[in-house]
Amino acid sequence: MFPNELVVIGVHSAKFPNERNDENLRKAILRYGVEHPVINDKDFGIWQLYGVRAWPTLVLIDPTGRIVGVHEGEITAEQLAKVLRKLIAEAEAKGILDKTPIRLRKETQPKMPLRFPGKVLADEKTGRLFIADTGHNRIIITDFDGKRLLTIGSGQEGLRDGDFKVAQFNSPHGLALQGNILFIADTGNHCIRMADLQNLTVKTIAGTGKLGRSISQGGKAKEVDLRSPWDLAYHAGKLYIAMAGSHQIWLMDLNQGTILPFIGNGFEGIRDGAPTEAWLAQPSGLAIGDGYLYFADSETSAIRIANLQTGFVMTLVGVGLFDFGDRDGVGQAVRLQHPLGVCYHEGILYIADTYNHKIKRLYPKMRACQTFVGTGRPGHKDGASSEAQFDEPSGISYANGKLFVADTNNHAIRVIDLKRATVKTLRIE
Q1: Taking the mean position of all CA atoms in its chain, how far away is CA 34?
Q2: Which of 15, 79, 107, 297 is the most exposed place for a label (fewest CB within 10 A)?
């Protein structure tokens, strides 16, 4: 909007240790398509210098280096544009505005079968693997050996319904399957999409394409603005949605075409209790088992559960917004670091402990959690579970004695053989 008047510089003052690493930050910039320069403020020097108190904080600086505005929290493009027009007019009147364009070169990425895959879903009944090829804005379907069967989406970023070849997505993540219907959390579009695997068509079933700006009470699914739906789980005609942006889990009645909050009142934090009393923090991974909805509550580095009938929320592991690490143990002694994915199988919850670059096992009844696969160091190495390396695994699914893992920063799907405790990379044809 202001190509020659405004220079944007991002300052990355990271909460989690994993996010302070230069290489991890570089990958995040590529993953999210950030085009402006970013400073890694790993020691919070700039944060302290500018007296920042909250994420995000916007600081406006005029051409002379003087701070002319500070805003804490989110702001709409329209609100910001109004302020910028006033400041630009003042700078032009003073003759201090240099409109010489600044040329930046964006790092190019080589062509690859997958780009930052966010989630994966294995269907044991049909032997199909559904991959959210997030960085390519599409869904890929393969068999368990990696043979490609179908591609959903043109790969162009956008919001478009239609047949598989023309449909468009924006950073899709979570997936849920019911028969020949694949439900897709179209995160960047703030929508829920439905792919008909028999007729090869896509349509939008929830969301308007606009980011919700306030806590909503729900309503008709296609009339409600959603906030970054990140993962999905299907159960008994209903779709559970990890609404990361509003710190809630929502529920969509597929028969009625309605959508509403299920648990969480919108406050960010970790508080158990009844659905409207519970505090959540960026829920990003869902799994259903034994009458419970398990979810990875990423910003509190917690694993929590909700009773499917009552919605009552309980925490299995995790303590608070600033309590994280890499520690096995029981209950409150356990520390994770920003987990994004979970799957449930035969009484065990498997966790993609994203920022620890590990897969962990949690026994819900005992609240005991232990490292299962991964060294804790980012890398791409197959082999025995004690030697294998991942790089920010974000999605996980079970089928046929194996765990399929969306190893996001490695642009790969990894396969863990539970009996042999070995890891291999799935070769996508």
Answers
A1: 16
A2: 107
Residues 391 and 408: beta-carbon distance below 8 Å: yes
Q: Where are the alpha helices (DSSP H) in 69-123?
A: 77-94
CA distance 343 to 350: 5
Q: Which two tokens stand for residue 9?
A: 């510089």
* Amino acid occupying residue 143: D
* Two tokens, residue 188: 């960047």
Assigned token pair, 207 = 């969301």
Average pLDDT of each block of 10 consecutive residues along the chain (429 residues)? 89 93 90 90 92 91 90 87 90 89 78 96 98 98 97 98 98 98 98 98 97 90 97 97 97 97 97 98 97 98 97 97 97 98 98 98 97 97 96 98 98 97 95
> Closest Cα partner for 359 from 330, 322, 388, 325?
388
The span from the CA of 120 to the CA of 129, in Å, is 7
Single-letter residue type at 339: P
Residue 358 to residues 305, 393, 416, Cα–Cα distance (Å): 21, 7, 12
Residue 50 C-alpha from the chain's centroid: 29
* Residue whose token pair is 């329209």: 78
User: Which of 211, 240, 219, 174 minimizes the C-alpha distance to 406?
Assistant: 174
DSSP state of 4: T
Beta-sheet pairing, 57-61 with 38-40:
unpaired
8 A C-beta contact, residue 217 and residue 225: no
Burial class (CB in 10 A: 0-12, 13-18, 19+), 157: middle
- Pairing outcome for strands 292-297 and 302-307: antiparallel
Closest among 308, 340, 410, 349 to 173, alpha carbons compared: 340
Q: Let me know: does 187 contact 173? Beta carbons within 8 Å.
A: yes
Angle at 171 between CA 168 and CA 173, to 5 degrees: 110
CB 200 within 8 A of CB 214: no
The C-alpha atoms of residue 83 and residue 211 are separated, in whole angstroms, by 21
